[in-house]
Here is the input.
Amino acid sequence: KKFKIYSICDDNVALASKANPIRKLLRYFQLKKIDGVILTHNAIVDWYRTQLSTKCKLLIFPIIRNDKLFKEQLNASTSIAKGYIDKYDLKNKKTLLFVGRLVKVKNLNRLIKAFKIVLNKDRNATLVIVGTGKLENQLKKQVSDLDLNNSVLFPGRFEAKELLGWYLISGAFILPSISETFGAVINEALLAGNYVLASELTGGSSLLKENVNGNIFNPYDIPAMANLISKTISDTSLFENLGESRASRMLKNYNT
Here is the structure.
């Protein structure tokens, strides 16, 4: 039987252009053998056409969520969000959120160092690291060594409406990974109304419009990361109308 072979790739332009030599070589040979590639957005399609001169077919299929399910979960997460505020004493705090596995590629050690610099300027900031992983104890020790126990929280791993509750009480979301395919967290954070700070090496950074719904940064530059976080949390409007009022506003946006 005759058939065609397509591959799915969720790179952004930065990830594709900075691929290591082995990956570049494998990509070169693969593109000569397959019939097409399914990519996530226009910018990376244009890059493939101009930089790789591939003759295979390029298709766009964006990462999407089930709107009906997401709205139901968002609506159900409002009471959960209030519980987090009470339990972790987050009322009137400027909460910055990370969600993901606690592993090396997520670059959390640099994020914690950057957050230490941020706290020197604004003691009202709080970093919430949601997730679990093999570096959890190491990261907690780093937080303790830097005397950040009162400002950095490790509440654990959450899913569905319990996870959305964290998005609702955070004014900003950060993903500092040094390598990251598209993933879901940037998309979820935006859908829940967060202002997003994303490493230039994350696939989902393609969803951001600079200074509109987020900013992109170099994940290796700790001072620059700290400056961007400080600038972001200085915008007090990001930390108003959180929790139930944020959910109501986002649900109204989806309904219209």
Observations:
- DSSP finds eleven helices and nine strands in the chain.
